[in-house]
User: Which sequence fits this backbone?
């Protein structure tokens, strides 16, 4: 069964790309093939910020399939699914652009039904921002067309940007909290370095801290979640 891991969120700078990088790095470290799709690149200026980090990986396929830009959102989503359907790997990580909710909701029913028809498992990781407006938007997404087709939905708090206070409407969803990583690690990540590559190349103290970051995520069961979803 193919599994789509959708890194979603409505504000730029909340860590969507970091989530996609982390998921891809888990597969890379475990030597499991995966497809990384950048849906942020388009003629309006979007720039792929996760794909370049895996272009040299022997376990990753990297592709671009914008979900905004010229053409209807339905046509763009159709192109995205053609790409997913044509790959022979079981794990597909999609990095979405900021403010993608309107587009995803517009085609949510179509996207969800396509996953159901093709037997794909849809997993959404939604990165939260700490403002009240952002939390309200998250609530809207969780009750939207796309979310009802998801097999799993996980909220992500990123301590890089301040932790969001979960509202009562979001209390039923499991939460992963990403801890702060040493600035040397973050600099490498910004320079097109996957977390898996950083773990190999970093000086010893930073390798230890990055290992601690992964251990913290394991304690929150993120690795167990990915392993269970492989079945």
Assistant:
């Amino acid at each position: 069964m193919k599994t789509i891991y959708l890194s979603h969120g409505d504000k730029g700078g909340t860590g969507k790309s970091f989530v996609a990088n982390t998921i891809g790095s888990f597969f890379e470290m475990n030597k499991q093939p995966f497809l990384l799709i950048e849906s942020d690149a388009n003629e309006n200026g979007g720039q792929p910020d996760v794909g370049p980090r895996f272009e040299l990986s022997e376990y990753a396929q990297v592709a671009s399939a914008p979900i905004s830009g010229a053409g209807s959102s339905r046509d763009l989503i159709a192109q995205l699914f053609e790409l997913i359907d044509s790959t022979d790997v079981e794990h597909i990580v999609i990095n979405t652009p900021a403010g993608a909710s309107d587009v995803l909701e517009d085609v949510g029913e179509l996207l969800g039904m396509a996953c159901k028809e093709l037997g794909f498992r849809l997993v959404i990781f939604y990165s939260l921002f700490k403002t009240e407006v952002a939390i309200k938007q998250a609530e809207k997404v969780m009750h939207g067309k796309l979310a009802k087709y998801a097999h799993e939905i996980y909220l992500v708090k990123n301590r890089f940007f301040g932790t969001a206070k979960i509202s009562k409407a979001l209390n039923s969803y499991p939460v992963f909290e990403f801890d702060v990583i040493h600035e040397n690690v973050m600099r490498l990540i910004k320079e097109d370095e996957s977390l898996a590559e950083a773990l190999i190349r970093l000086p010893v103290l930073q390798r230890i801290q990055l290992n601690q970051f992964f251990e913290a995520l394991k304690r929150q069961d993120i690795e167990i979640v990915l392993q269970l979803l492989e079945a």
Summary: Strands lie at 3-8, 34-38, 60-64, 91-95, 121-127, 152-158, 175-178.
